[in-house]
Design brief:
- The chain contains 11 helices and 16 strands.
- It is α/β, with parallel strands linked by helices.
- It has a single domain, classed as Alpha-Beta Barrel (TIM Barrel), CATH 3.20.20.140.
- An 8-stranded parallel β-sheet has the order 3-4-5-6-7-8-9-10. Strands 1-2-11-16 form a 4-stranded antiparallel β-sheet, with helices on one face. A two-stranded antiparallel ribbon has the order 12-15.
- Strand 6, helix 4 and strand 7 form a beta-alpha-beta unit.
- It is globular, with a radius of gyration of 19 Å.
- The two termini are 15 Å apart.
């Protein structure tokens, strides 16, 4: 499968992706469609995707915005945005749709466009019971929003206060702990049943929290969950490259306009879709684990979701290519991860 400077793998999928909406869609979609066959689309639009009908409308807008060469090779996998008002009948409608593949739990106020998220998860227990019965995965943004909790501890406290109880109370519920950032999260996932898995981003494996302050405030390294200590970064790499089926690729690529990142109260999110698989190849290469990349990027995700593995292949070559300082983003620009630097690997 591998040569000294080249690797061919089954076309990967992105199990956590933000593509925004309206005029921004056509700017960012090609980067993901070039690299991935499928992507779990996040529902946290300004007007959240809370119903199956809204998910279908959003899906149609995504497909319409795809360049013609990707319309038959890239599939958006839709999700619903969980609220205190979500009911069991909507979950069943979503399951029967065939295009909604998961439900996303955002604690209210935890991240971008999450103000309408869940303020009381106990109020959602009937919905979680239905999801457990029907095999619909729950995707979790795992952070508490209590202002008394240090921002670097929000994930660990969420595990202790909420997630362990959900796993205990709904033992057959499929749970994806998304964009995990701590050794605590790795331990939880590893010790839980096969119904619990996690996605890991490239940027949380490439950066620790020092990157937020290198030479000054770095707004384009600000994301939620926030970057953590070096010990946690190493724990994520160890988990991703371990060969465990519980961990898989989710970029959490989250574009924002340059001006909304570079201001007095900048947005959280890092745009990584331009190197969506290449950054992972760099990480696995440095860990001497390129032979584990295909399972992490192409097998573990579809296996967990109960979807077929892709049939097509892509080839990555160890070849540096330039990363632009900015990318077009609607009528404005977005600053990509590692702007002005280089990708260490390239799609052949």
């Amino acid at each position: 499968m591998t040569a000294s400077n080249k690797i061919t793998i089954t076309t990967p999928d992105d199990w956590h992706l933000h593509v925004r909406d309206q005029e921004f869609l056509s700017s960012v979609l090609p980067d993901s469609a070039k690299r991935f066959a499928r992507a779990i689309i996040m529902p946290n639009l300004t007007d959240p995707v809370t119903t199956t009908d809204r998910a279908e409308e959003y899906r149609n807008r995504i497909i319409d915005a795809l360049p013609n060469e990707y319309k038959l090779t890239f599939e958006p996998l839709m999700t619903l945005y969980l609220t205190n008002r979500t009911n069991a009948s909507e979950i069943k409608k979503a399951i029967n749709s065939g295009f909604v593949h998961a439900v996303k739990w955002y604690p209210a106020g935890a991240t971008t466009n999450s103000s309408q998220g869940v303020s009381d998860i106990v109020a959602c227990y009937e919905v979680l019971e239905t999801m457990q019965e029907e095999g619909m995965p729950l995707l979790v943004h795992g952070e508490v929003t209590d202002p008394n909790v240090d921002i670097f501890d929000r994930e660990k406290v969420f595990i202790d206060q909420f997630l362990t109880n959900i796993i205990k109370n709904f033992p057959k519920l499929k749970v994806v702990f998304e964009h995990i950032t701590t050794e605590h999260a790795v331990t939880l996932v590893e010790s839980a049943s096969s119904n619990v898995a996690a996605t890991i981003t490239a940027h949380h494996m490439l950066l620790n929290r020092n990157a937020l302050f290198k030479g000054g405030i770095r707004p384009h390294h600000y994301c939620l969950p926030v970057l953590k200590r070096e010990e946690h970064r190493k724990a994520l790499i160890k988990a991703a490259t371990s060969g465990s089926q519980k961990f898989f690729l989710g970029t959490d690529s989250a574009p924002h306009t340059k001006n909304t990142k570079e201001n007095a109260c900048g947005c959280a999110g890092i745009y990584t879709a331009h190197g969506g698989i290449e950054f992972y190849a760099e990480i696995f290469d440095k860990a001497d684990a390129l032979n584990k990349l295909e399972a992490f990027a192409s097998f573990n995700g579809p296996d967990f979701y109960g979807l077929p593995r892709n049939k097509s292949k892509i080839t990555l070559t160890r070849k540096q290519t330039d990363i632009a300082d900015t990318f077009p983003f609607g009528d404005e620009v977005c600053v990509p991860f590692r702007a002005g630097e280089k990708l260490a690997w390239s799609i052949d």
